[in-house]
Input
Amino acid sequence: MNVTVKQINAFVALAQCRSFAEACERLHLSQPALSITIKNLEDSLGGGLFSRSTRSLHLTPEGEAFYPVALRLLNDWDQALGDVVNSFNLKQGRLIIAAMPSFAVARLPSILATFKNQFPNINILLHDVLNESVIDLVRQGRAELGICFNPGESDDLIFKELFNDELIAVVPQKHPLTKKASVTWAELVDDTLIMLQKPSSMRLYIEEVLADHDLQITPAIEVNQLATVGKLVSLGLGVSTVPKMCEQQMEESGAVCLPLLTPKIERSVGVIWRTRFALSAAAKALHSQL
Output
């Protein structure tokens, strides 16, 4: 069955006008064109929708039954088109993103506040998850954009760098290291160390870099979240390292942050999305703000 919106629209106009001349004027069609359109619709449906005479035009019982259905179809069509237009114009829609906790806490809230102020009717679902999970969510199509560390070469992901972030030392307020202008990795790993658990990409990257400098990590405490790191350090349970973008969060927890050198460890932070899939208008707008 090949029924078109044009045919349904013609049927509704003719049913309401009960006159080919008036319906043609409303639709801006010639009478032969309207007659062919109605005939094609009737052929597709399998029977007549109008009872015609020289002086009158009436709906058949089947036409009477089809009329409310046709109105609903046109209304649904208009609604569907309106939804698409509103999505393109960012007047409505839903955006799913993923961000590693360090970025989700430190930088993303102000960006989302600006975005929501500009596009208040775009609903946002944020997955604030570990770096590896951000990559998986985007790769699986469960998030349109992800903010994470550079995942490396990948055929199915695009990575656009936002900035380079360096690791800093986090120590308790009364710790002897607070008297120094900066801390070395040798000093940090010799202390009571609090670290993220494996397989955190940050943990693995740190171990890889330190191995090149003949340094090893032996954590006294291992956790999953950077917020937990800050709290434990502030209570004097040990020292740690976090991305510099978490500096404010750590200081608000009561810890002291210091530059961490020898070696200086940096990682590229950026936005990822799938290679072969176009971004929605909402995702493009947020990407631009990022």
